[in-house]
Design brief:
Elements: H1 9-23, E1 27-38, E2 44-49, E3 54-59, H2 61-65, E4 76-86, E5 91-101, H3 104-120, E6 138-143, H4 148-160, E7 164-169, H5 177-190, E8 197-202, H6 216-224, E9 229-233, H7 241-245, E10 248-249, H8 253-260, H9 264-298, H10 303-340, H11 346-388, H12 391-396, E11 401-404, E12 422-427, E13 430-435
Parallel strand pairs: 3-5, 6-7, 6-8, 8-9, 9-10
Antiparallel strand pairs: 1-2, 1-4, 2-3, 4-5, 11-12, 12-13
Helix pairs in contact: 4-8, 5-6, 10-11
Length: 437
């Protein structure tokens, strides 16, 4: 066996470094991200592991910042780069130059993990959903300023119900998209004249293309918005995390325009129907109350007739009283005649009878006064009742009397007047003229 060449530690370390870096200058390695951490310098350090081994790796800041989808703990990736060694420590690591996800399944697993975490915080709870306004005056749109999405939204809004639109242009794909979308949502909420609703929109694409709408800062910005937000990302089958936190999800950007703006003609038709029903209801109430007043007035005598009836009763009472007075006087006179023959002093007896007669007269006058007072009280009560049922009091409660200007008759039905006919409306405090349309 040949004798081995004697080498120093530095020499062997240098040989190993040169050999490894020459033979592993370009490798692609599949593994699971573990122990990921970012240094203050911006460089990212991590390990790639499988079921039995671990490989240290580093991704320099410039490369990491350019990644479309950033690696996360537990994500299965394919890393491209070179193996380098540290002779002073007898260590080696992978210098990562590019990241690839090992498949859609890896992204979906990471998405599901993030979704569960945010849901546990309550960001997707229905109780936090804000009501979408029926007729917004200003619609804010967060989307790319170019392309068919913004044109479709503007065209649909204009066609249904012309509404002011304020566009906040952003990237909807790529490294800076998530930050720009977050800034747009926060910016709309800080405006003095805020929009009534915000639509976040973009067209369809792959899960990688739509990934910015799964970023946590975008989701939290939507949750914190005081303005209702409609998510209109991708096609109907595309699902992103913004869909779960938004106050309303639209299947497409065009559908978002339809869900946030009513059809103006439908609104006009509905309002016209409401106005017609209201007019008919008021007219019916007025007519019913007019019938009630008419029936009540027919069951009561006119004030003059009622007073005349009571006056007649008073006259009858006075006539009866006169007869009673005459009867009393006659009886007294007869009694006087019968007893005069038995009186020793006719003048004394006459004086006594005159005193008795005066007493009777006072009692009679007192009775007549009480009777008259009672009847006057009855008349006053009846007068108050008639006053409460008079049409003036009815007018004071908000009703009015409508008369035709042609003949001055009271109008009891809409069929009694025609279009363009003048009418007179009597209120409690005066009269106004009007023309029927």
């Amino acid at each position: 066996m040949d004798k081995a060449t004697e080498l120093t530690v530095s020499q062997i370390s240098s040989l190993i470094k040169r050999n490894i870096e020459q033979n592993f200058s370009y490798v692609k390695i599949r593994g699971e991200v573990s122990g990921l951490k970012r240094a203050p310098s911006g460089h990212v350090y991590l390990s790639l592991k499988d079921s039995s081994s671990v490989l240290a790796a580093v991704c320099w800041r410039g490369i990491f910042d350019s990644l479309k989808i950033k690696p996360e703990e537990g994500m299965e990736v394919i890393c491209t780069g070179s193996i380098t060694t540290f002779p002073g420590q007898s260590k080696y690591q992978l210098n990562i130059e590019a990241f690839e996800h090992s498949g859609i399944g890896s992204l979906m697993a990471m998405l599901e993990t993030r979704k569960k975490s945010l849901a546990a915080e309550g960001l997707f709870d229905i109780s936090h959903k804000k009501k979408i306004p029926l007729l917004p005056k200003l619609i804010g749109i967060v989307t790319s300023p170019t392309g068919s999405v913004i044109r479709d939204i503007i065209h649909r809004v204009t066609d249904r119900c012309p509404t002011d639109i304020l566009i906040w242009p952003v990237l909807v794909q790529g490294n800076e998209a998530a930050n720009q979308i977050t800034e747009a949502i926060n910016g709309f909420n800080q405006l003095k004249n805020k929009p009534d609703i915000i639509i976040v929109a973009r067209g369809g694409g792959s899960i990688e293309d739509l990934w910015c709408f799964n970023e946590e800062n975008v989701v939290r910005a939507v949750f914190a918005s005081s303005i209702p937000i409609v998510s209109a990302v991708g096609h109907e089958t595309d699902i992103t995390l913004i869909d779960f936190v938004a106050d309303l999800r639209a299947p497409t950007p065009t559908a978002a325009a339809e869900l946030t703006t009513p059809v103006l003609q439908d609104l006009k038709s509905t309002l016209s129907t409401y106005a017609t029903n209201l007019y008919r209801t008021i007219h019916k109430l007025v007519h019913e109350n007019e019938m009630i007043v008419n029936l009540a007035s027919k069951s009561l005598p006119t004030p003059i007739n009622f007073i005349n009836m009571q006056a007649q009763k008073l006259d009858e009472l006075l006539f009866t009283a006169d007869k009673k007075v005459l009867s009393i006087l006659s009886n007294s006179y007869q009694l006087l005649l019968k007893t005069s023959s038995r009186l020793i002093s006719p003048s004394g007896l006459l004086e006594q009878n005159l005193i008795g007669l005066d007493n009777y007269s006072r009692l009679f006058k007192l009775g007549i006064s009480r009777l008259i007072a009672n009847k006057i009280n009855d008349l006053n009560s009846i007068e108050r009742l008639l006053s409460s049922l008079s049409f003036e009091n009815i007018l004071s409660r908000g009703f009015a009397i409508i008369r035709s200007k042609n003949n001055g008759d009271i109008v009891k039905s809409s069929e009694e007047i025609t279009s363009e006919e003048k009418i007179e409306i009597q209120f409690i405090d005066g009269k106004k003229e009007a023309i029927i349309l």
